[in-house]
Amino acid sequence: MMQESVKIFFAIFIIVLSFVAVSAQKLDLMTITETKKINAEELKLLAKPTDKKPVLINFWATWCGPCRVEFPDLIEIDADYRAKGLNFFIVSVDDFAVIDTRVPEFLKDYDSTMPSYLIDIEERKEIAKAVRRIAPRFTDVYPLTLLFNANGKLVFQKSGKVNAKILREQIDKVLPKTKE
Q: What is the mean pLDDT of the chain?
């Protein structure tokens, strides 16, 4: 009888521990995908690497069809390159009113873990002006993908859906070479 009680206790313990682990993973995901607002000055700082690592920034919106098409590729690129020294940030140009609704739903739907920002500027032309401060050739077309080298120099810019293979080639050029 005592042995069976111990087995039941351990079974319940394992079940509770499983729920705690799953809850902790969900909490981590929620923390990772929290979207913070960013203004024009902070956007300039985001593009400047403080840790001498290349920076990839993708501007997107929940209403943007090409953004939705390319997002799975960006998730894979982040998974493949973050440990290799790439800082990858995503910046939504959605209306600020959706920071707590559509933006987190979008990020959750795609299992995004990149640090996420929403540009805190109301007028679209002012958003474009802020983006042009870090990408002078920007034509107000989304998505927009920018790659900066470890010194903060813009080395790749693509408006519209980015070709994942080309983006990977560009990233490989700016990552530190590893000895194998």
A: 83
**pLDDT given at position 38:** 87
Predicted local confidence at residue 7, as pLDDT: 62
Structure tokens of 60?
């997107």
The whole-model pTM stands at 0.79
**Burial state string for 42-73 with b = 16 or more CB within 10 A and e = fewer than 16:** ebeebbeeeeebbbbbbbbbbebebbbebbeb
Question: Worst-scoring range by mean pLDDT, 6-10, 48-52, 59-63, 78-82?
Answer: 6-10
Q: Which residues contact 20 (CB under 8 A, 6 or more apart)?
A: none
- Could you give the angle at which helices 65-81 and 164-174 cross, rounded to 10 degrees? 40
The first and second tokens of residue 90, run together, are: 């995503």
Give which of 58, 41, 40 is closest to 121, Cα–Cα: 40
Helix (H) or strand (E) holding 35: strand 35-38
